[in-house]
Amino acid sequence: MEINKTRLDNGGVSLAIKGKLTAVEEGLFQETINEVIAETGNLTIDLESVHYISSSGLRTLVSAKKQIDAKGGVLTIINVCKDVRDVFEITGLSDLFGLQ
Fold first, then answer.
1. Beta strand 13-18 with 2-7: parallel, antiparallel or unpaired?
2. Of the candidates 98, 4, 97, the residue with the CA atom closest to the CA atom of residue 50
3. Number of compact structural domains in the chain
4. What is the domain-level CATH number for residue 47?
5. Which residues span the domain enclosing 81?
6. What span, in angstroms and rounded, lies between the C-alpha atoms of 24 and 52?
7. Among 46, 38, 93, 45, which residue's Cα sits nearest to residue 67?
8. pLDDT at 100
9. What pLDDT is recorded for position 93?
């Protein structure tokens, strides 16, 4: 998994993820998210290059949403491919994250 971090004009941070989000990658993903949450309350996660997400990846996103919501920030997930979107829909998380 690769993570490309970009600072946004609004003071937030965008993380572009490439690869799979599984238990193997969860530690690095969670560590990166925690660093961003410490810096800012606004996080955009671009999943365009993610074609598989496990329950561990979903758990990390749910945890990040709770932390960001507690800070009064916004977590936005963008560019979700069909296979990953299906996982969000099956688990009922598409509404939580506002996926269209």
1. antiparallel
2. 4
3. 1
4. 3.30.750.24
5. 2-96
6. 13
7. 38
8. 62
9. 96
Phi-psi label, residue 7: left if phi above 0, alpha if psi -120 to 50, beta otherwise: beta
Query: Six-digit token pair at 3?
Result: 């993570």
- Structural tokens at position 88: 């969000």
Instruction: Name the pLDDT band for 11 (thresholds 50, 70, 90).
Output: confident
What's the pLDDT score for residue 26?
A: 87
SS3 state at 50: coil
| pLDDT, tens digit (0-9, with 9 covering 90-100), for 32-91 | 999 999 998 899 999 999 999 999 999 999 999 999 999 999 999 999 999 999 999 999
How many CA atoms are closer than 13 Å to the CA of 69, on its beta-carbon side? 8
pTM of the model: 0.92
- Phi, psi values for residue 72, rounded to 5°: 80, 15
CA torsion 10-79-43-89 (nearest 10°) is 140
Crossing angle of helices 23-39 and 55-70, in 10° steps, is 10
